[in-house]
Design goal:
The chain is mainly beta. The chain has no helices and 14 strands. It has strands spanning about 1-5, 5-15, 20-30, 40-45, 50-55, 60-65, 75-80, 95, 100-110, 115-120, 130-140, 150, 155-165, 170-175. Strands 1-2-3-4 form a 4-stranded antiparallel β-sheet, with no helix packed on it. It is globular.
Length: about 180
C-alpha cells in the first residue's frame, strides 16, 4: 500500500480470472472508502505475476512485480497508475529482464522525479544464492538504468530488499543469509 493526495493504492496478486495471478489494485479514500470495489487490473497476461509493491511520487503510483511473461524465469516489471485509477503503462515497463530468476521487488519514490526499484536475482552458478540489484525509473515511466546497479553481491546470499527515500537519497536494506556448505 502507498498513499498520496488524500488516498491510498492497495495492490495484490489475484487469480480471479484464471489460475495464474494478475496484478490488481484498488484506491481507498482517506476516509476509508474503497473507490474501486472490483479492483483495477494493472497487469494481465497468460503467465503468473506475484510480489507486487507500490510507491507514490507525488503525482502517480508505480506498481512493480515479478512477472513470468516471457519465459519460465520471473522478471521485474512495473506500471504507473494515476490517482484517477488509470493504468498509464498497460503493457508494463520492463525493469529487468535478465535470464536468471528475479523476484521480491520493492520500490520507493524520491519526490524528485524518479523511483528506485530493487529486487533479488538468483546467482547463475549457485541455485541457493541471490544478489540484490536496483534500477531507477523516471516518473514518466522510462527505465533510467539499462544496466542494473549491483547493491549486494556478497559471497553469501542477499535477498528480500526493501527501499526507502528521504526525498533525496535512497536506502536499500536486505536480508543476508549465511548459507554454509558452499
Amino acid at each position: 500500500v502507498a498513499g498520496g493526495k488524500g488516498q491510498f493504492l492497495v495492490v495484490w496478486a489475484d487469480s480471479r480470472v484464471h489460475t495464474l495471478a494478475d496484478i490488481y489494485g484498488a484506491r481507498v479514500s482517506g476516509a476509508g472508502k474503497v473507490l474501486d470495489p472490483n479492483g483495477i487490473k494493472i497487469s494481465a497476461s497468460s503467465n503468473s505475476k506475484y510480489n507486487p509493491q507500490v510507491a507514490f511520487d507525488g503525482t502517480n503510483y508505480l506498481v512493480v512485480w515479478s512477472d513470468r511473461r516471457t519465459n519460465k524465469n520471473p522478471m521485474i516489471y512495473g506500471a504507473r497508475v494515476s490517482t484517477a485509477g488509470k493504468v498509464l503503462d498497460p503493457n508494463g515497463v520492463a525493469i529487468s529482464v535478465h535470464a536468471q530468476d528475479q523476484n521480491t521487488p520493492d520500490v520507493a519514490a524520491n519526490g524528485a522525479g524518479q523511483y528506485l526499484v530493487a529486487w533479488s536475482r538468483k546467482d547463475k552458478n549457485r541455485s541457493w544464492k541471490y544478489h540484490v540489484y536496483a534500477a531507477r525509473v523516471s516518473t514518466a515511466g522510462k527505465l533510467l538504468d539499462a544496466t542494473p546497479v549491483t547493491i549486494s553481491s556478497h559471497a553469501k546470499s542477499s535477498s528480500y530488499p526493501r527501499v526507502a527515500s528521504d526525498g533525496k537519497d535512497y536506502l536499500v536494506a536486505w536480508r543476508y543469509k549465511d548459507t554454509s556448505g558452499d
